[in-house]
Structure formats: C-alpha cells, structure tokens
Amino acid sequence: MNTRIALPAAVCALVLTVAGCGAGVDQRGTGQPAPPAAAPRATPGPDTSCPNVTASLRPTGALPAPTALPAGSTMEVLRRRGFLIAGIDQSSFPFGFVDPRSNTLRGFDIDLLREVAKAIFGDDGPQRIQFRVVRNEERAIAVARGDVDIIAETMTINCQRKQSVEFSSVYFNAGQRLLVQRDGTADRADYGAGLAALPRDMRVCSVPGSTSITLLREQAPQVKVVEGDTWAGCLVLLQQGEADAITTDDTILAGLQAQDRVFTVVVGGNLTLEPYGMAIAKDRPDFVRFVNAVLERTRQNGRWKALYREYLGNSLAAEVPDPPAAVYRDSA
Ligand code: GLU
Prior knowledge:
alpha/beta
C-alpha cells in the first residue's frame, strides 16, 4: 500500500466538518439565482502567445491491458516500480479534498488519477498512488524535475506552463470568478465590469502561482492582493475579516461557497476560460498519449459524467454537461 497523504488535513477537514458538506455542493441552495455568466474569453497574457494551446498528443490506439503495457514504456516502468506519484491539492474541494467522514482523499481530480492508476496497475490501481501535496506555484516545476509523475490539480493549460511541461487533453473547462461576503453591501455591488472595476483598496485573496492571482495583479492594480497559502486558507481569511473577496476558478469558488453558504456568495460572470489538463514531463510523450486514452475512455464510458454528478452536480450546472472534446495536434 503506497497511498500516502503528505500533509495534515486540518484546514480542509475542519472547514468541511463545520460546513457539514459532502461530495455534492449546492451553490443554488442559497435561494439566490446565480448571476448570469458573461461569455468567457481567452485568458490574457502568456495564454495567447502560442497556437493551439490545448492541443495534446493523440492516444496510440486503444488502451492496452495493464499486463500488456509496451516494454520499456513509461507506464511499464511505473508498473514495475509499483506505484504512481501524483501531485495534488487537498484544499480544493470538490476537486481535491480530504473527506472528514472517511479520512480519505476524494475529488474530481483525485478520482481521475485513480482511473489512470487502474489503467497501469489494474483493479488495485487506486491503492497504488502516492499522493503528494504540491503548492500551486510549484506544480510545473515539480513535474519538470521529476518529483511527481503527474499533476492533477485544477491546473489551467497555458503557454507559459507549456514551456516546461506537457499537458493532457482538456478534462474540464472552468472560468475565473469572484466570491464575496454575503453582507448586504459587497454582494449587491455590480461586478459586471470585471476585476478592473473592483473598489479601490478592496482586499482580494488569491493563491500565488495561480492564473487567478496573475490576472488580478494585471487587471486590478487598485486592489490590495491578499496571498492565501491555499484556497481553503483564503476562505478562512474571508471569514476572519482579513479579506473582502476571493478570486479563482468557479469550480473552486463553488466548493468554498458550499463550506459557508450563509455568509458567502459567488458574484459576477466568468472572467476567463480556464481549461484544466494533467501535467506530465515533456520527455514522457508515451505517458501523455496513454493518459489521453484514459481520459478518452472516461468520456466514452460515462465515468466523466458520473464524476461530474458526484462532485459538481449540485453546484455548477443543473444538468451534467458533455465532457470537453479532446483536441490533438498530431495525426497518430
Ligand atoms: N486553474 C487556475 C490555475 O491553474 C487557478 C486555480 C489553481 O491555481 O488551482 O492557476
């Protein structure tokens, strides 16, 4: 058994316990309709500097059985080693979190990693993952250095990150938004004009190494940026009155809001498009193709939709959407 949780689950478990929330989150249970989302636009900055940023490497045919992995391939080397090392976050409910009832790691990202492990090791694959908590700002470098074999951590595919790592096909499309206190003032302001129109000196929490904090610094020089150590840490700062707002992906904000439905609310429309991919080292293209085949299988056999229903079904959309279609940049 190589499953290991690298850091104590204190913050996440505490917040989850206090909120009494399970896997499903119900942002709509607030009685207030979600504000209309503006059409997402491409994330600015480095994201637009390379063509076909989300195009990945095509799977090589159907997935082989775990016992028939190509000799010498990355997957066969991992199988012989006996475990997969996966970089994750455990404070990004419902993508990566510790379920306080079972004290196990759960989430959309975590379960997708378990699918990858099953394809390498067979049925006991889920027990053959060594999970390592990787700080947001270290995701790309941890993969490039070989500290982890793969990262699944609400990680947006962008050109800057693609300089150091390869990404799988897109497995989720998120968008940056804002979470504020439901105090009768902040939640009634007009957030339609985006970050640039936020009030001067508003204290906005975001996590270093995220696309969210980059956009915040670029577009809202008038606000005070509060750096959280994690997204759950930002929620604590908001609850303690040390921050007025949090900005990051709608997925993560929905999870934070579910932990404090009474006092927080997600406002404004989508500010960006944040396509999530799993990060893998550039010198392991065979593993990228293999992971893309696993993702393809989850799209086709209903697993992706089951995961959406389990973790996001009550929060982001009333109906489970279709999974994002894969885009490949090579023919075979
Ligand atoms: N998806 C964004 C990113 O990769 C923000 C969320 C996060 O950092 O986990 O930077």
